[in-house]
Fold this protein.
Amino acid sequence: MNARSRLRGPLVALAIACAGLCGCSLAGGRPGAGRPRLVLLVSLDGARPDGIAQADTPYIDDLAASGAAADDARTAYPFSTLPSHIAMLTGLSFRQHQVLLNGYGDPMPPMPGASVFDVCDEHGLTSLMLAGKKKLSMIRPLSEGPNTSRVVPLHGIGEALREATESGPPRFIFVHSASPDLEGHAEGWMSPGYIAAIHRCDGMVGELVAWVRESGLWDSTLIIITADHGGSGTTHNGEHPEDIQIPWIVSGGLGAGAELPERVMIYDTAPTVLRMLGLPIPEGLDGRPIEGLRTHPDVGR
Ligand SMILES: [Zn+2]
């Protein structure tokens, strides 16, 4: 055994012990770059900012208090679930994505551009999608394994997250709840049922935050809480400002003390997520990464 190999054993043991103590893995990040970043993007379908303000939402309120909430975040034409999520997850506006489809087709048409999931795939970063509507599988086809993508009802999201992350946390997690939108179409936006649905979403957000903290990932995580559109009456066709305004809240260790611009567009979300993951942003997007988000000194790509 030469001097170098005598050293290698203890060094490897030290690295393993350190990774264990930090609750993190060196896999997925550059050696020496520190703990890898996680982005948790939560879309509450049809949730209006004033609906969140009216509902009992202690967990979302805590996130906004420790992070920041945009004063004027907006979705874009055609103000419906599938096109809006395509804008959110690709950074493209309708001008480029041209998607009007808001249903489930089997098979779904091809995506008009690369989503955050696709860029993660290309650069070897794992991701997870837990969605409340099957039509979002146009953006990320359903699958199991290291890049799980599932349709899950609101009440099952906490358990599905724990199950899907048993072998380690992915780098990008997208969670979507359909509940506010379903209640809005049934009873009306801002109806008691709608407000109750937002309260249930808040409980789900609480479960997500608990998982982030228990996993030791808080300091290296950016959480974004947003929505695909608002609504008024029993629909969301863009005729009223309430259809267009959306929440856009950043929090987690990487969102602490953030300073957001007044106006955030839904298609700014994808380039912001990619920048925070240290991934290249595709050229020609309509969205731009939001400035003013800090990076923890011990957190790497
Ligand atoms: Zn929707």
Q: What stands out?
A: Confidence is low (pLDDT under 50) at residues 1-32. The chain has one domain: 45-291. The first helix runs from residue 3 to 22.
